[in-house]
Amino acid sequence: MEQRRLGVPLQHLTGEAPFRHEVLAVGPGVFIPRPETELLAGWAIEQVRTVSDPTVVELCAGSGAISLAIATETAGCRQWAVELSDDALPYLHENLRGTCVDVVHGDMAEALRELDGQVDVVVANPPYIPLEAWESVPAEVRDYDPHMALFSGDDGLDAVRVLKGVAARLLRPGGEVGIEHAEVQHEQIVTLLAAGGTFDRVTDHRDLAGRWRYLTARRTKVSP
Ligand SMILES: C[S@@+](CC[C@H](N)C(=O)[O-])C[C@H]1O[C@@H](n2cnc3c(N)ncnc32)[C@H](O)[C@@H]1O
Question: Can you give the residue ranges of the Methyltransferase domain (predicted)?
């Protein structure tokens, strides 16, 4: 209780975080999965279920919450989870042990080039908080979730700009990408994904609180 009073997240004290039907191992060094991300995972699961023998990639995997949900809620598939952080990696390995998911340690920008043009679903909850919003982020988040998991450039969209290019090369024509984002990024992220013609059916979705929460788009046949 004293630790909680000082602001240590409950999940760091118990070492666990629930996500959909699973409980993940978490602790210092890895982002604590949030309930709002369950919606993005649910969207990915629905997409995966529409494809026979699906190939799925999660970028910015953290604890592996989304990948674990997909692996346990769909019938076997080819799946990869990509994470850059050395500190998050042990949690990712532990949470995905015994599943069909292959863990890739590295920068999403260069990851999985051998799968270019073959992936059915790309899903990501990237860092998306603007650096300038530092002061407004609650101390419990700022002091305990890894900075690499939270902040992404002046407008918070640096990682999404990279992610757009990675999804464009990984996805087969007609493949789908889903990306979580902040409510205030609604217009910017729709404009960003729609620009250039590599994606169509660009659609933003609200969470259960009515806030814009994740964007989905379909890979077109136009070269990136
Ligand atoms: C907001 S957390 C999301 C974690 C997990 N997917 C979830 O929803 O709980 C973002 C994650 O992206 C990782 N990350 C940041 N930049 C990355 C990059 N360039 N390549 C791969 N992973 C990256 C961070 O280390 C962090 O684990």
Answer: 56-142
